[in-house]
């Protein structure tokens, strides 16, 4: 997965968004309710017709939260979307996926 911008431009934005979402405590709900060793798969799907945008950035959020998360992008930015089309799949620790999902969306 590549992103057309230098990491110095978008990683600080991801870090700021994650910090705003999680605060000092982190994702306390996931920490309190999800076992540390639980693995999961997250799939982002289109809700309706449209044009894909920002998928590499969304993928970067997942890997910024946890380098062990594996992300596959299934659509290309600028490509047409139809309802329920899978856009991105992330595999890894459930806590990490839940921590990243709000910011990635």
Describe this structure in words.
This protein has four helices and five strands. It is α+β, with helices and mostly antiparallel strands and 105 residues long. It has a three-stranded antiparallel beta sheet. Strands 2-4 form a two-stranded antiparallel ribbon. Helix 1 crosses helix 3 (55-65) and helix 1 crosses helix 4. It is globular. The model has no long low-confidence stretch (mean pLDDT 90).
Helix content: 40-55%
Mean pLDDT: 90
* Oligomeric state of the chains in view: single chain
What is the topology, as strand order, of the major beta sheet? 1-5-3
Radius of gyration based on Cα positions: 14 Å
| Separation of the first and last Cα atoms | 18 Å
Unreliable residue stretches? none
Q: Would you spell out the secondary-structure blueprint of this structure?
A:
Layout: H1 7-22, H2 28-33, E1 39-45, E2 50-51, H3 55-65, E3 70-73, E4 80-81, E5 86-93, H4 94-104
Antiparallel strand pairs: 1-5, 2-4, 3-5
